[in-house]
């Protein structure tokens, strides 16, 4: 695993050496960055899906909540999500977290890094991140997932900083169930532009990586867009635009254990899914099989 420096939200991080102040106090655009989407680009799955079982085992979420989480996420995992669907997904996940202490989520996420997240990281993504770092580029994770999950993952893969969605927290440190800031799809472009302005990044010389056509605005915002494991629409657009396409192989440990993990989630969730209807249970069963099929292709050893 590639080790990286400590990071925080980009509003807290200073620029790397080499940027300088322009008139008016802003940083001159003299640096290059590589902006990486997270789910299905750096990770082979959804961050939320990967952390569902650790959250359940820790007692932070109940079996009924796990079941609802599975139902909410399955369409995204299997078919992707457009802007409206993505916003609905974000709001539903935030609602499921209402009343949970943020500090407890951060603790569970930290404890789950080695077992739930690291095995799902694409080796090729680590190689690209390291190559950009060696070239002197800033590496930034830009994700619609929440800060509590994205920042530790960004730190794990060696990114300089991360920009992520934020759920509202009350005075007692508990999630309210509302979204304070969403970076779903088109909202990533203002985030890139803000990061570029703060850290002296020239977007025309920078790179962006994503798997989804919903991130097309982000890819078009930089001079070097690269599509990774693209959905059908993004693959077609990349072919028309002449963009590079990278198809990553499933991580070894994910391929070995995805079936068992999916079955465990199904075992935990099925009793509750049955209460909301046989159709929902059937959908989850199809999703578990699909998750296994997607992750059981050819693999190569991790370095």
TrEMBL record:
CDD domains: HAD_PGPPase. The keyword Hydrolase applies. It comes from the Bacteria. GO terms for molecular function: hydrolase activity; metal ion binding. Keywords: Hydrolase, Magnesium, Membrane, Metal-binding, Transmembrane, Transmembrane helix. The chain crosses the membrane at residues 273-294. Gene3D superfamilies: HAD superfamily/HAD-like, SG protein - dephosphorylation function. Belongs to the HAD-like hydrolase superfamily. SerB family. This is HAD family hydrolase. It comes from Actinomyces respiraculi.
